[in-house]
Design brief:
Elements lengths: L4 E6 L2 H11 L3 E9 L5 E8 L6 E6 L3 H4 L12 E4 L3 H11 L2 E2 L4 E3 L2 E7 L5 E5 L7
Parallel strand pairs: 1-4, 5-9
Antiparallel strand pairs: 2-3, 3-4, 6-8, 7-8, 8-9
């Protein structure tokens, strides 16, 4: 058993793709035409970090209720966690690209961590490699 996909509600597909694919380096797995539950045209857009099994469906908000969830899908908490192989170079790349940092990097027992804001306004922990016991 595994999680196939989960959804992040966004305001605009192309803006979200520019952030996740062009800036963060995720892979675009699928971008196909579809139809929303209200009968409106939409796209089925799936991305994922390189080598990951679980995808993220980028879903353009359809109506006021979904629009109100943009950037607040986890009630203001950090809701997404991205483990990276090279924490320092990732932070430099994100800073150079204009990513919004919500915290200073810090060392935790589970690895280095910094909080960023994504294009939709959600908070992500960027996690460095786990520390191994000496």
């Amino acid at each position: 058993m595994h999680i196939e996909n989960f959804t992040i509600v966004v305001a605009d597909y192309d803006e979200a793709l520019a952030f996740y694919v062009d800036l963060l380096g995720f892979e675009l797995m699928e971008d196909s035409p579809s139809v929303s539950s209200s009968g409106q045209p939409k796209r089925w857009v799936v991305i994922r970090p390189p080598g990951a099994a679980t995808g993220i469906v980028l879903a353009k908000a359809d109506g006021e209720r979904q629009e109100s969830a943009i950037g607040n899908q986890t009630g203001g908490r950090v809701g997404f966690f991205l483990r990276v192989d090279d924490f320092d170079s990732t932070l430099r790349r994100f800073a150079d690209a204009g990513v919004t940092f919500l915290s200073e990097p810090r060392r935790e027992p589970y690895g280095d961590v910094v909080i960023i804001r994504d294009v939709a306004g959600n908070s992500w922990d960027i996690l460095g490699p786990r520390y191994t016991e000496q």
